[in-house]
Amino acid sequence: MASPKNRNDFACTECGWTTAKWAGRCGECQAWGTVQEIAAQTGIVRKAKPAVILASSAARSISEIDAGKVAATPTGVAEFDRVLGGGLVAGAVILLSGEPGVGKSTLLLDVAAKVASADRRVLYVSGEESVGQIRLRAQRTNSVTPELYLAAENDLSSVLGQIDAVTPELILVDSVQTIASADIDGAAGMPSQIREVAASLISVAKERGIPVILVGHVTKDGSIAGPRVLEHLVDVVCHFEGDRQTSLRFIRSIKNRFGPTDEVGCFEMTGEGISEVSDPSGLFLSRGNVPVSGTCVTVTMEGRRALIAEVQALVVKSGAPQPRRVTNGVDSSRVSMILAVLERRAGLRLSDHDVYVSTVGGVRLAEPAADLAIALALASAVQDKPIAHNLVAYGEISLAGEIRKVNGAKQRAAEASRLGFVRSVDSEVGDVKAALALGLNW
User: Fold this and answer.
1) What is the rounded CA–CA span in Å between residue 349 and residue 355?
2) Which pLDDT band holds residue 287 (cuts at 50, 70, 90)?
């Protein structure tokens, strides 16, 4: 047995790091406030006795298990079902996170109303709002239905009691950080409380076959607040994101045990609530009847979904010793690299010009496939030559001026063809100089 001098009496609740004395910050994962005192180790090793296995829980051959019992049931919100892999699976636990005010509660209330309208009882538990506030929002968004039950609870025992009383077919908890258990020390939102609340709700979901959707808060860096083990315990982790300056919202799955993790659902926030956007490509285009120089259309991939987006550029002669470089919706460092390639490899003089690059509709183009569209928009702006309306461009530009292939080329081409773009400039062109000549003179 370890001597008291060498015994570690404190451990991190996040990663398990141990120390002999208390510390405000974990020395392993660098998390604050997670080091807590643990029970002293006795050094006695106990062997677990085998339990009696009941016939109902006995191991069975995989060929004997009915997969139909875990089939997904649609919620009625097609974009949400797309991300989940078809819908809700019995006993599944889904964690939905997002920035404050992005629309998580509005989305879940819409999901709850759609499920309840199909004669399936739904229990919506809120630890942040009163039932009157939820009723007002439901009335504003046309989400009032008799099978939707509301409860405002902050105690875990009361939440479990509400589940027993209502016997719902779907449970929504908003949010897991606001529920606390009286059996665990600490306030709501502490790692130990979150683990206890999540474990209890997961146990209810698995035992009764009820899907549960948990709302999770996020920290300043965008990660889910609380212990990392929460993401391991649940079956699906979804992130709801969007810019407050625009109405467009995206929901994407980070982890999914029942479907792909590269699907993206699109929504639009309106005064009447949240609505699905089955074809969001039109939101990212601003095309007039007369072609204008400095604009180019590209095809970006959001997960497995191809979206049409428009890049706009403005190049103005600068009298300042340091010309301005202003970007919106694209990476500024990538634009600087493209400017250097255009000047060195394509012979365009841009070092003495102010350059402005922006996207339409607030979409962010983070993938390298947008390089070629940005280059064409810049060349079109500096030469004042409009690009044809039926032309799209996608491809990554290397420092040597080559056009590299990008993933999802077939999906990009199919989406462009569906929307009437019959001409494309891509990696088949070869280098950036040839791509500019083709795109501006087609």
Assistant:
1) 12
2) low
Name the CATH architecture for the domain at 73-278: 3-Layer(aba) Sandwich (3.40)
In the chain, what is the straight-line distance between the N-terminal and C-terminal CA atoms, in Å?
81
Alpha helix ranges (H) inside 209-350 = 229-233, 332-345
Q: What's the CA gap between 99 and 218, in Å, rounded?
A: 6
Q: How far apart are CA 327 and CA 304, in angstroms?
A: 26
Instruction: Identify the sign of the CA torsion 122, 125, 128, 130.
Output: positive
Q: Which residues contact 349 (CB under 8 A, 6 or more apart)?
A: 343
CA dihedral 252, 255, 261, 266 (to 10 degrees): -10
Where is pLDDT greater, at 191 or 97? 97
Predicted local distance difference test score (pLDDT) of residue 52: 74
- Confirm if 116 and 76 have CB atoms less than 8 A apart: no
Helix (H, G, I), strand (E, B) or coil at 286: coil
Tokens 């950036």 appear where? 432
Strands (E), 303-389: 305-317, 325-328, 353-359
Query: What's the CA gap between 306 and 129, in Å, rounded?
Result: 38
Sheet with 122-126, edge to edge strand ranges:
148-152, 122-126, 170-174, 212-216, 93-98, 236-242, 248-256, 264-270, 273-276
Topology given in CATH for the domain delimited by 282-441: Ribosomal Protein S5; domain 2 (3.30.230)
In the numeric block, which tokens belong to residue 335?
């634009």
Indicate the burial class of 68 (C-beta count within 10 angstroms; 0-12, 13-18, 19 or more): exposed
| Closest of 120, 209, 204 to residue 164, by C-alpha | 204
- Return the domain boundaries, the chain: 1-42, 73-278, 282-441
CB atoms under 10 Å from CB of 354, counted, come to 17
Q: If pLDDT is split at 50, 70 and 90, which confidence band does 227 have?
A: confident
